[in-house]
Each structure stands twice: as C-alpha cells, then as structure tokens.
Design a protein that fits this description.
alpha+beta, 155 residues, four-stranded antiparallel β-sheet, 8 strands, DUF6678
C-alpha cells in the first residue's frame, strides 16, 4: 500500500472512532531524538497502531531485557525516507506503552539487575511537553486518544 492511501485509511479510522489527535510530527521527533540522545538506553515499548486490532507485542506485563527500536515505530522522517513494512510513520501510532527500565543479565547464578531510568524518561517527557499517563511504572503516550483517555493525560 502506498503512503498516501495508507495515511488516508488511518485518518478515516481516526475519524470513524472519534479519536482526538494528541501528538504531532514535531513532538514525535523530539521524543525519538531525546530517547537516543539523552537516555542511557532506548526503553522497550508496546505499540498499538490505529489500524491494528491488537498491540505489538501482545503481552507486555513483565520487565524485559531487550531494547526498544524507536526508529522502526516512529519512522525516519529524513528527506530520503521510504515508507516500508518494517518502518511506519508516526501518524499511525494510536499509543505506545513504555517500560523505562530493563533487566540486565548478571550470570546464571545471580538474579538479573533492574536498571531503572524512569526519572530521566519523565524529565524528557516534561521538557518536550509530551502528554502522558502512567500506571505502575509504565507510561502511555497517545498519538490519538478517546475523550476519556485525553482527559487523563498529564500535560
């Protein structure tokens, strides 16, 4: 599917469901560049796209040891970027759930170490003016939100 048709399909679904736009390209870019330039590691995330019935990965309850690929989910917005299956533009992100921590293996006989960057992550969100919600150490950033979700955002 080409870029123009895909964007039109996403916008039609946003309108059909009565979602409100929360983020824009500038904020997504600030978030993406801040994650790579200011945080010790890019935190893992779960993403729900507007046209997808389920988030990816489907299960995201436990802390994880892998890093998040923010370029793949928020796209490359450079002038020579291409729309492709493995890299989507940010306009199709309904929400992202982020775990600003990760497990680091220390050996077979020693428990994994939890590396927590929550304070630095929240500071990044606040400095960039990115609205979010949080629950039990996980953070949600909405590209589009229902009226109820929109009312709960920290701005």
């Amino acid at each position: 599917m080409d870029y123009i048709r895909y964007k039109k399909k996403v916008m039609q679904e946003v309108e059909r469901r009565g979602l409100t736009s929360v983020m824009n390209d500038t904020r997504w870019e600030q978030l993406k560049s801040g994650v790579y330039s200011r945080l010790p590691f890019p935190p893992a995330f779960q993403v729900k796209k507007v046209l997808s019935p389920k988030p990816e990965p489907e299960r995201f309850e436990q802390d994880v040891s892998y890093l998040g690929d923010w370029l793949a989910i928020l796209g490359d917005d450079s002038d020579d970027a291409q729309f492709c299956d493995w890299q989507h533009p940010a306009f199709d992100v309904e929400w992202i759930r982020i775990k600003p921590r990760r497990l680091e293996a220390r050996g077979r006989l020693v428990a994994d170490e939890l590396i927590d960057i929550e304070a630095a992550f929240v500071a990044l969100l606040q400095e960039c003016g990115i609205p979010y919600t949080s629950e039990q150490g996980d953070y949600w950033i909405y590209g589009y939100a229902t009226a109820t979700e929109f009312a709960q955002l920290h701005k």
